[in-house]
Amino acid sequence: MSPSGTQDDDRTGSSLEQLPVPEDEWTKAALARGMPLAVARRLPHLPESPGVYLWKDEQGGVLYVGKAKRLRSRVRSYWAQEHEASPKTRGLLRKVRDLDTIVVPSEAHSLILEATLIKEYRPRFNIALRDDKSYPYIKVTVQEPFPRVIVTRRVQDDGARYFGPYTDVGSMRRALNVVKRLFTVRSCHYALPREAPERPCLDYFIKRCKAPCVGYQDSAEYRAMIDEVVWFLEGRTSDVVRHVRERMLEASERLDFERAGELRDALRHLEKMEEPTVVLEVEGGDRDVVGYARDGEDACVVIMRIRGGKLLARDHRLLEQAEGEEDGAVLGASLAQWYRTADARAADLLVPFDFDDRETLEASLDGTRIRIPQRGPRRALVDLADKNAQHLLEEFKLAALEAEERAADPVYELQRELGLARLPRSLVCFDISHAQGTDVVASAVWFENARAKRSEYRKFKIQGFEGNDDFRSMHEVVTRFFRRRIDEAKPLPDLVVIDGGKGQLGAAREALDALGVQPTGLISLAKKDEEIFLPGRSDSVRLPRRSPALRMLQQARDEAHRFAVTFQRQKRAARTLTSELLRIPGIGPTRRRALLHVFGSVQGVKDAAVEDIARVPGFGLASARKVLQALGVPLPVEGPSNLTADGSAVPEPAPPAGDPDDAPPDFSPPPPRA
């Protein structure tokens, strides 16, 4: 029987070949898009009921496992559109050659079966948990008359209780040490009571075991102890303390002071061990809290176990192959594959946001309610779990040498609030500046992990047109910035921020489309109401005024504005500086530059003495006086300083060669015509 419940492959294949291919317009269009004939033949015969479908390649390997409320509609949807927004789906459809389906009674059954098949086949196009077979479990063999507590890396359906997997091996070892210290669990491998040694081992004499193997401890007493071990591993430490205290009092009433002393010592140790596990006190009750962090195709999901109002443990999973998937799909897939099969689930599961399969997953969790807190202590717990997920994902990235430093918390918040597929570790912000339509310039400032990176700042003079047009200016500067980075093979930013509204955003989008650049995120930030606009969305996004993510965007916007305004003022000052000198007849560019080089500004020239100007290369006393007169500076009456020793005037130096603009104006009449 194949996974779809059909006959063997040969008979299925031959029956498929005998099915006619529908000739309706939709099927013709789907075949033109590349739908395989095997799928076209099977599609009309699929039921409109819940089930699971398996896409297969040429060799029959499973490429993707998916669930559906209505199988025929879901399979048909793959070929009803071009999937331009999902490179992952396009890549899948290029490899699909066949289809298998499994019909199930309900949607909850389809969710469970999908998770089971993903674990079995590990398809390359499904969101995949990193292989958890390398993580250890604590196994309590409750199916045996005298259970043991052992460590294993294989989970089997043998009736035993499994706790884990422990991603932190240190926490598992600490739990085992507590079990060995408090409980006299046997460490031998005899199949009691069928197999038994002739005499007790060393553990009996050092009081680590009460030798049930030779009948020194009966099955009922041993089973009661194992129940307490299970409670302890589930995190119900207070229940264990209460039972140990009751047994200690019973032993003292029976005058069994040796046993009461042993239980007293165990109780003291339990109470000491309980304190270090208290990381956070919250409102009472048992709950599991989910944290989530995402960076591109990698994601991390954390579950914190809270029992009796105390945070006792944290577990996590790293997910891969999430590129092109929504955050809700990633979170739902993780919980379906991992949390659904976990032991000792709490009555409440707190998640950071809603996802499509929440109700279906809740129906399969046997009494666990899924809640999405918005405020208060429960939301604070979810935020704490999110931070744990962020730090664990950062550690994974750092270990993989994919990041030079940790991303700040506002970066993760910005990704979550805007629904960005990739963590915006790097962002560039553009701004346009001008002075009443003149001296139009632009700036681009770069932020890395919420911190300014000045070595990547760039400033631009708008060159493509005259006048002031913010939209055309934004189009030009975005084009020049990205073309330069592409030509120089430099990394592109994860997020592009435009200072402005929808018009500036549209101009930037057109520029990027023309270059063939598809950034992970493109937004604009309008200053009036701090609205965030995204391409393709008519409504804006407004973050809380105290949001760290909004403050980070404002910091980038303000820095881009400062950098642009500073450059614009410099450009305007340089233009103003030379405008007065341009009005002086006979003073060309070379001598103007010489004056500005010596005196620094027009005011410096005005404050200079005639003799100081005359010392500038290319100037003499007469031209120096001419400069000051043109600038409106009153001059003293010309005296002997303008004469040589023999009484003749000081000759004017010849203007530098190659500077025709420095020649004095020629007012002589033109020569007569021939």
Q: Explain this structure to me?
A:
Residues 1-14, 275-279, 640-650 and 658-669 have low confidence and may be disordered. β18 and β19 form a beta hairpin. The longest helix is centred in the C-terminal third of the chain and has 35 residues, at 548-582. The protein contains 22 helices and 19 strands. Strands 13, 14, 15, 16, 17, 18 and 19 form a seven-stranded mixed beta sheet that branches. The protein is α+β, with helices and mostly antiparallel strands and 674 residues long.
Could you give a short description of this structure?
By secondary structure, the chain is an alpha+beta fold. Strand 17 (495-499), helix 17 (502-515) and strand 18 (521-526) form a beta-alpha-beta unit.
Number of continuous helical runs: 22
Instruction: State the separation between the terminal residues, measured CA to CA.
Output: 114 Å
Based on helices, strands and strand pairing, what is the structural class? Answer: alpha+beta
Helix percent reads: 40-55%
How would you state the average pLDDT, rounded? 80
- What proportion strand? 15-25%
The Rg value, from CA coordinates, equals 39 Å
Q: Flag low-confidence runs.
A: 1-14, 275-279, 640-650, 658-669
Overall shape? elongated
How many β-strand stretches? 19
Largest sheet: number of strands, sense, barrel closure:
7 strands, mixed
